Structures are given as C-alpha cells and as structure tokens.
C-alpha cells in the first residue's frame, strides 16, 4: 500500500487549492470541476481538494455539538512570524487559541485548522 495524498473537503475545491498552491508552492497535477490535486516538487504524497456542497466548517478547539476537526496539516517553516504573515496575506486567519510558543494555529479559507511551526533548537 502507498499513501498518495490527503483530501480536504471544501465548499469550492478550486478556491482552496489556489490557497494551498500559493502557500506551499506546489504544482496542480490534476484538475476537474470539483477536484484539484497538488503535488510537492520533490515528490511524495500530494494534497487534494474536493468540493462538498454540504460542507460544514470545523470548530477548533472542539466543543459539544459542533463539527469537529478531523485532520489538520503541520507545516514546518524557518521563521514563524514571517510564515504566518504570508499565510494571512493569502487568506488564512490566525486563530485566537495558540497552544505553544513554537506553533501557530491558523485556519485556511474553508476553516480547516493548520499548524505553522518551527523546530525547537537542539
């Protein structure tokens, strides 16, 4: 078995794919009306986006009777503040809840949480 990617549902697959294409610098390798797949330049598993008409934005941190987060992406960066500013410029929102000093939780345009983080110095 080979994991070829992860798929995020969204109200508009193309819109969310544009956000992640710009954020990550990945290439669109497959595009259909309700499906877009991005692939990293050095190979490996990709990230795909699927339009879902009944999409409900996840809530993080989770609470009773709310759509809970099912997956989140971890994105390693060299400089935290610069990377977060860039993500916000592209359409992300910095979440009010920040659990760690070396991690920033952001929400993509469809509301999926993702973490921008820097490695702890050894």
Query: What letter string, H or E per element, gives the SSE order?
Result: EHEEEEHEEE
**Fraction in beta strands:** 25-35%
| Total number of domains | 2
Overall CATH architecture of the largest domain: Roll
At CATH level 3, the topology of the largest domain is 2,3-Dihydroxybiphenyl 1,2-Dioxygenase, domain 1
Coarse structural class: alpha/beta
CATH class of the largest domain: Alpha Beta
**Radius of gyration of CA atoms, rounded to a whole number:** 15 Å
Distance between the termini: 35 Å
Backbone shape:
globular
CATH superfamily of the largest domain: 2,3-Dihydroxybiphenyl 1,2-Dioxygenase, domain 1
- Uncertain segments are none
What spatial order of strands do you see in the largest sheet? 1-4-3-2
User: What is the number of helical segments per DSSP (H or I, 4+ residues)?
Assistant: 2
Helix fraction, binned, reads 10-25%
**Average pLDDT:** 93
Number of strands: 8
Q: Tell me about the biggest sheet?
A: 4 strands, mixed
Organism: Streptomyces hebeiensis
InterPro entries: Glyas_Bleomycin-R_OHBP_Dase (IPR029068), Glyoxalase_6 (IPR041581), VOC_core (IPR037523)
Domain VOC: 2-119
Protein name: VOC family protein
């Amino acid at each position: 078995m080979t994991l070829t990617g992860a798929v995020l549902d969204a109200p508009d697959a193309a819109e969310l794919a544009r956000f992640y294409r710009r954020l990550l610098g990945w290439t669109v390798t497959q595009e259909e009306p309700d499906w877009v797949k991005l692939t990293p330049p050095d190979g490996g598993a990709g990230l795909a986006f699927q339009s879902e008409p009944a999409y409900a934005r996840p809530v993080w941190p989770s609470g009773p009777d709310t759509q809970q987060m099912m997956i989140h992406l971890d994105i390693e960066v060299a400089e935290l503040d610069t990377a977060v500013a860039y993500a916000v410029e592209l359409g992300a929102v910095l979440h009010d809840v920040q659990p760690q000093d070396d991690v920033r939780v952001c929400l993509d345009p469809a509301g999926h949480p993702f973490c921008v983080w820097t490695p702890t110095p050894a």
